[in-house]
Amino acid sequence: MNRLVAVVGLTATGKSALGLCLAQALDGEIISCDSTAVYRGIDIGTDKVARSDQLGIAHHLTDVVGPEDVYSAARYATEAAAVARAIIARGRIPILVGGTGLYYRALVRGLFPGPARDGRTRMRLETVAGRRGVEWLHRWLMRVDPGSARRIQPRDRKRLVRALEVYLLTGQNLTSHFDATTSPLHDFRIRTLGLTMTREALRPRIARRVDVQFERGVVEEVQKLLDAGLPATAHALSGLVYRQIREFMAGVRDEAATRELIIRENVQYARRQMVWFRAEPDVRWLEGPGESERVFEEAMQYVRDWERESVPRS
Hints:
The chain has 2 domains: about 1-110 and about 180-310, Rossmann fold (3-Layer(aba) Sandwich); about 120-180, Histone, subunit A (Orthogonal Bundle). The chain is built from 13 helices and 6 strands. It has helices spanning about 15-25, 75-90, 100-110, 120-130, 135-145, 145-150, 155-170, 175-180, 200-215, 220-225, 240-250, 255-280, 295-310; strands at about 1-10, 30, 60, 95, 190-195, 285.
């Protein structure tokens, strides 16, 4: 049976460090599970592991498309599954590492492709959002699809509209559709490790990471992309860190307030990640940080137990 080890969980808990250690120990290759790291040039704010820090371990599905493109969860599931099978063919273990819950679900449990976009339905929903506010869409979604409402931010207009569009067009909510899908890795055995930390422990780590991002030049990174002709509205610049940096550059707030906002929104994002991954079955939760020897030993014990279960009985 093909095997895959996944390291998921909260932002800034050390997933990349744990993934590297596991890849070394298991002769593995890493598959990124990050919806922003797929974009070339979007490096500092996504904390991509520098080539010099990859320890000679192959990393896949970073820098897949240009920052002007839009990359989907459906495409990710197809490409990540193909990469996982290629790694297996080389006699190695795929190590999935990242915190994008939708990408993880699309790969491990399958993704409902959904009906085509319907202009009339979208116009209706956009009109409602314009008149009553986007938060009204979130309250509506909470009534018809509480699972999706807990995962989608109250002001994430794009995803709220899509979730409600699917419900109106099919008569079933997204959560029901997801539950009925088939994984592109249906013939794999998957061991998933989830990293978590208390809010008191996590916030200082996020703050340190934000300081490092500014020191490494995340503002200059965004300016370089804009100078090269990338529209400020590009999807690659809409995620955490990059959205706030764009607002800072536009004069919406000063640097100190921008740093604090990024920290606060990362903490909120961590809460949403926990809601998402807690809903996933068969995740073994470990209290971070991922770079600690204790966490690595706990992770390896979980994998060893799995390996023993795979040995046929005589």
